[in-house]
Design goal:
With 269 residues, the chain is an alpha/beta fold. The protein has 3 domains: 1-40, no CATH class; 46-148, no CATH class; 156-269, no CATH class. The protein contains 7 helices and 10 strands. It has helices at 2-12, 60-63, 127-145, 181-188, 198-210, 221-225, 251-268, and strands at residues 17-19, 27-31, 36-40, 47-53, 68-77, 90-93, 112-116, 119-120, 151-155, 216-218. The strands form 3 sheets. Strands 4-5-7-8 form a 4-stranded mixed sheet. The protein has a 3-stranded antiparallel sheet with strand order 1-2-3, covered by helices on one side. Strand 1 (17-19) and strand 2 form a beta hairpin. The protein is globular, with a radius of gyration of 20 Å. This is Trichome birefringence-like C-terminal domain-containing protein. Belongs to the PC-esterase family. TBL subfamily. Residues 2-261 form the Trichome birefringence-like C-terminal domain.
């Protein structure tokens, strides 16, 4: 979405663009003529996380048999975006893929271990429970610390289209046309519990957490579920089919069309 937005703005600018990154940003650009800066702050879980190893002196987690994993602080924002709130007037958040990623957070070998107020949450939480806690705290943090008048969006989950297995199980995405309604339901229905089930599962948590908040929901999921043909696939330069990222031009341009419409409605309304 960020690259699509940059391309759209660049095509409408006079070429006066400077590479510049606010603190914590992975990349950023300033359109000098308009004094407009856009930036991408990469964060996998919204909350702060890092590797964790058990102590020789023991502790609550060690007593339960945990020796290593990943510590996730549900009430501490990731440093990559923590200070972004004091700079940006328009914010777009999203999270999702890493919460259902056994290849990254193996529930036995490298589990997510959630902490609150600096202490482990006991009994340990499942990832979906941890997601709820992170969303609760991060939404409150943003609403408390964002600039006055800041417009806050939360983008729903971007669907993957792996068929025949996950990315590390030989899954692929070789379709050359959009899916039918029936095919979408077969691939994404929570009842089927398929490879791509995370898409709608994460959204259920997002909708619940955002209810009553000051965020505008940027719902790009269902329109994107049809576009199994819009991923790089075997042309993505990876050892496996890339069925998660999107080709440009493509569906992310439509996401930005929706974003601009919602933004216009906000300011005109």
């Amino acid at each position: 979405m960020f690259v699509s937005l940059f391309c759209a703005l660049k095509s409408a600018s006079d070429g006066q663009i400077k590479k510049w990154r606010p603190v914590g940003a992975d990349r950023g650009f300033t359109f000098l003529t308009y004094n407009l800066t856009i930036a991408y702050h990469r964060t996998n879980l919204l909350g702060r996380y890092g590797s964790w190893s058990g102590s020789d002196t023991g502790g609550a987690l060690e007593a339960l048999g945990f020796r290593e994993g990943y510590r996730v602080d549900v009430d501490v924002p990731d440093s990559t975006w923590e200070r972004a709130l004091s700079f940006h007037d328009i914010l777009i958040f999203n999270t999702g893929h890493w919460w259902w990623a056994p290849a990254k957070f193996d529930p036995v070998k490298s589990p997510m271990l959630f902490f609150k107020n600096g202490q482990p949450v006991i009994p340990p939480l499942r990832p979906d429970q941890g997601l709820d806690m992170v969303l609760e705290h991060m939404i409150k943090y943003v609403e408390k610390n964002a600039r006055p008048g800041a417009v806050k969006f939360f983008r729903t989950q971007s669907p993957r289209h792996f068929e025949g297995g996950d990315w590390d199980q030989g899954g692929s995405c070789q379709r050359d046309r959009p899916l039918s309604i029936e095919q979408v339901e077969e691939l994404f229905s929570v009842k089927n519990n398929g490879t791509n089930v995370e898409t709608r599962l994460v959204n259920e948590h997002l909708y619940k957490a955002l209810k009553g908040s000051g965020f505008i929901i940027l719902d790009i999921t269902h329109m994107s579920e049809f576009r199994a043909d819009a991923h790089p696939g075997s042309a993505g330069g990876k050892k496996h089919d890339d069925c998660m990222h999107w080709c440009l031009p493509g569906i992310t341009d439509t996401w930005n069309d929706l974003f601009i419409e919602l933004l216009n409605s906000k300011y005109q309304g």
